[in-house]
UniProtKB/TrEMBL annotation:
InterPro entries per record: LolA/LolB/LppX (IPR029046), Sporulation_related (IPR052944)
Name recorded for this polypeptide: Outer membrane lipoprotein-sorting protein
Entries under PANTHER family matching the protein: SPORULATION PROTEIN YDCC
Domain of life the protein comes from: Archaea
Organism of derivation: Halosolutus amylolyticus
Gene3D superfamilies cross-referenced by the UniProt entry: Lipoprotein localisation LolA/LolB/LppX
Signal peptide: none
Lineage of the organism: Archaea, Methanobacteriati, Methanobacteriota, Stenosarchaea group, Halobacteria
PROSITE patterns on file: PROKAR_LIPOPROTEIN
Amino acid sequence: METRGVRVAAVVVTALALVLAGCTMPVGDDREPDGTELIESAIDERATVDGLQGVRTTTVNASNGTVSTTVRVWERPPMEHRSEVLEASGPEAPGDLIVSNGSETWTYDAEDDTAMRYEGPVEGPESGATDADELLEGYDVAYQGTETIGQWETHVVELNATDERPIERSIGLQVGDTEYVLPLSYGENATGERTITRERWWIDRETSFPVKQRIELDGPGSEPTTITVEYDELKLDADPADDRFAFEPPANATVAEPANLTTVESPADAAASASVSVPDPRVPAEYERRDVTVEDDGSAVALFYEHEDDPQKTIYVETATEELDVLEYGEVVAEAVGPIDATHIEFPTMSTLVWTCGGQYYDVSAPLGVDALLAIATSIDCR
């Protein structure tokens, strides 16, 4: 199991979890339902679901192939969560677990028979926009009729992004045992950011729960990517047993310690305790440094920068003495990029450059185009 504290690498599939929570809304007369009202009701009322259990399949289709993971989930908002991998074509394996009771979170790698315990809850997955007005302001909404999805008769609503008012929105990505909130932007792609071009929602006619959702992404350096989440065997307002949110490692399992991170004020402070040369990159003027973290053994340093107008828009820079594992997960778009001979890797919502310099490993990750990433990377003075 990967023990590094921060990994923006593995944006595949157990990975992406969109909580498409349910609600109720009245079924009208014979008039065609209004797509905007369906979406508004689903978003506004989703927090009313007291709990759910079921099977959720997340599929990422990209130019380098398809990765899919099916998990059985139990959720009791706001903090209790359990997911068990049933099938996977990516780095996850059947039997992998994430279990949180609100005060502690366990992850279990079935293939390696390794468990890891963290203090605190795992943050609940997000569907992105939490405000209906914010979401709909970036879309043209069209009702597409009805469709049978598994056991459900659904209303189908399509949302097509407009470029009239580009706005940003985030989507929760769970990477191994860590959840990251990465930005997705609507509208024009002038800055090289990956953009949402279209969404399609399949909303159960009886409960108004979105039992399926598909997001289409476009962006630089890669063909369009689709992310689809679909539920099966779903029970809403379920009350899972308390033991679903408890975990005891198997008797012979290895219980690994998560990497301990210390947050410091600046790269200079990090250099005082790190065994690596600490980068101090030049980033675009609209980004400000938010955090600098150092692994307690000094073997890795990470810097986080956030956009001054949108804190969810981040740039991530890491250096470490050990090889970074991002190549295992994303789509390698190009090698030997720029004067640093970097490898360019694409993920559904971000791009990464990975390279070596002065005996260290580096990566820069952000929802930016490769030219912008390369400018950041080449500003790092390494020897």
